[in-house]
Amino acid sequence: MSTNAITTQKVNFKVFRFNADKDYLPYYEDYSMDVTSEEVVLDILNRIKWDHDGSFSYRRSCRHGICGTCAIKVNGRSTLACKESMTEMIKVFGNELTIEPLSKKRAVKDMIIDKADFWEKHEQVTPFLDAEIDETPTSENLVTPAEANALDEADLCIQCGACHYACPVVELSDDFMGPAAFAAAYRFEADVRDGNESRLTDVNQMGSGVWDCVKCFECAEACPKEINPIEKIGKLHNMLFQSGQADSNVATRHAVGFEKSIKRVGVLDEGGLVLYSELAGIVKHMPVAIKMFSKGKIVPPWGITKSDNLDEIQKLVKSSSTAKF
Amino acid sequence: MGKLKYALFTGCTAKQSTPEQMMSTMAVADKLGIELVELTEASCCGASHLQDYDDFLSLVLNARNIAYAEKHGLTMVTICNTCQLNTAMTKHRLDNNADLKARVNEKLEEVGLVYAGTSKITHFLYAIIDDFGLDKIKEMVVTPLSQFNIAPFYGCHNIRPSELQNETHDTPENPYNPTSLDDLIIACGGNTVDYDEKNKCCGFHAELQAPKVAAALTGNAIAGAMDGNADWMVTPCPLCHLKLDTQTHHASVAIGREVSLPVLHMQQMIGLALGCPPETLGMKHHVTKVDFV
Questions:
Q1: Nearest to B17 among A221, A241, A270 (CB)
Q2: Interface pTM (ipTM) of the complex?
Q3: What per-residue confidence (pLDDT) applies to B1?
Q4: Among candidates B61, B80, B88, B72, which has minimal Cα distance to B9?
């Protein structure tokens, strides 16, 4: 039994309100409440509905952090309302908290959003085990612990959408599949039982493909199950190279260009990398490049300071390389 | 406190597209009496892109860089958020996976090196906060920046993933409500600007493959700072700096609004407050003119 005494403190909530059926624009309603140290964010949503305004709407179901229904944002941070302690929220943000849906532009009513984009993208990555199953097996189909570990906890995803709507690329581009869909693709690609032969190619080619991640780690931070979706996106990149399915485009050449430059000079030859990645497309960078050159920001290839002991680096690139392009 | 001494991993940008960052780092270190031993043997950290192509190679190369810091018996200081991320990530992975560490060391042995895991890796911002102390900075300020509203732009790879970042420095940083750079601005006598984009992404890493998204992120960041009434922005990351300083045209087109603000490296801001002559801080290398110095 916990020996911590329950404490209470005053918190001011600014709560996003919107009813797509009658409101032209969303607005915020203020609520001031005494919050106890034992409460979670969902308790606050319940109290707003039960004590203040019965029309306040939000999704909730299991209350055990497993159905993924109640994800919302508190002060911009994606969170599962039933899992997130108010004490933690107050510790991080203080006593003025803003409660918003995961995506304001997809709001239907208060905290409830239209999650269709999430599900459509999720569906496109063949998010299920694609395998020939012997319905009358004579022995067990064993998966070794090492093979199970290869999933790297991607199977813990509860499709709450916290990472998807924390992703700045999803916010700006309808074509980007988003971290949750990519993590789901990885989950089945990494499964030894899976026999799907087109998923990896599909993921590489659908929408804007798998390369538009800005590497901001918002998804890693947002995931309530600590799945680390961006790491799975990186693994999909690795898989595409390893399986020889990474076609030559600006993003793949950009990744490979680092190795080429390191092999040559140890450091990154910035101009050389852009040229190698863009090929003729380099032309569109010229206006900015000219400005940068005039300010002493572009070093010509012959002016680059190579790493000392370059021979070591070259030897290591040769002996440690695991990928081909 | 004895003289602070670190192994400096400059990263590639400080030696090429942001010479002003290198100049101001050395000027400020000199002013603070911090000794920086440059790791001239270091290779590129891979910037999260080599990692997409060949993860194991990136670990070997970053472990080699750290091994050189270990040879000096020094903490490694980085001056680029992305160098910090990739180097600290390598350390984290090797220190928590004996098998992986052994496989990497097998390669390093070929060139007579070993990764032991003895050197700490920290960004210069946190070295200043944790080891030097903001109170001492405050005492040394000769030109308080009190007439300026300064918008901090943290840069993703110094604050996320927080679990990794908070392993590397003493000052806990919350990625949703970071304070380190704000504290530094205050120590320099400036007024901090609070705005939604201060802990968001600048778009740098997708600039080539997703230029519109990248430009919109840059535009939103500058617009947020402008709406917060900032006179200028400051960042600890040279990659964010490149994006915010040189891409204002594309950023403006992307968000349909003219945006532009001078952007200083963290080191330049400290240098101004401590009275370093502006010419030692490389202000002439900015594309967006620094018009207030």
A1: A270
A2: 0.96
A3: 65
A4: B80
